[in-house]
User: What shape does this take?
Amino acid sequence: MPERPYTILSCSISLDGYLGGATRERLVLSNDADLCRVDRVRSECDAILVGAGTVRDDNPRLLVRDPVLRERRRARGMAESPTKVTMTRHARLDADSNFFATGDSEKIVYCATPSIRTARSRLAHVATVVDGGPDVEVGSLIADLHDRGVRRLMVEGGGRVHTQFLTAAAADELHLVVAPFFVGSSQARRFVGDGAFPWNPGHRARLAETQQIGDVVLLRYALSSRFEETA
Assistant: This one.
């Protein structure tokens, strides 16, 4: 099996398991204290990955916010924030979005082969565009990231990306933050979609840590034998 980065999946969900509301308006599920925790985890990673839908819908910057954490990265000879990575089938990405326009770190786009020409014409001036194969296969993507020097990867969604990483058994731990309210709409975005997950009634994931952070709860699951006991 090709080598791959140590991979952390991170997301916040409602009590009924949704990543957001039924509209495109961003729903805040976390709180300031948990955002600081996420910032610390980001600062310890070489790359952050989100799907193209998250780039379009949330317009995230994906930067380390705390100046102390940024300085620590600089002292280690690293960019202030991790490399930004996204994966896309159709290259419907705006080169002026925050993903590309903010931060001094490298940006990498893995694009499905049928859209690679379009992706390069739109994005080659702001990112490294990589042919990800017919449908951007996760195993090949993370092997390529490892070859590029990424040893620690944080995956921040959305639901389709989480599903792909989990069903491919390509994650080492899951950070699941639960907000104290319901969304209550089947039209909202779920944490994961349908799939054959390695963790099921016959193979339960190991809950390694629970932590109350203000009004939310962090559930930290060990998903592989490489899980790092850092609590």
About this structure: The two ends are 29 Å apart (CA to CA). The beta strands are 6-13, 47-51, 83-88, 107-111, 128-131, 152-155, 173-178, 206-213, 216-222. The longest helix spans residues 32-43. The chain has a mean pLDDT of 95.
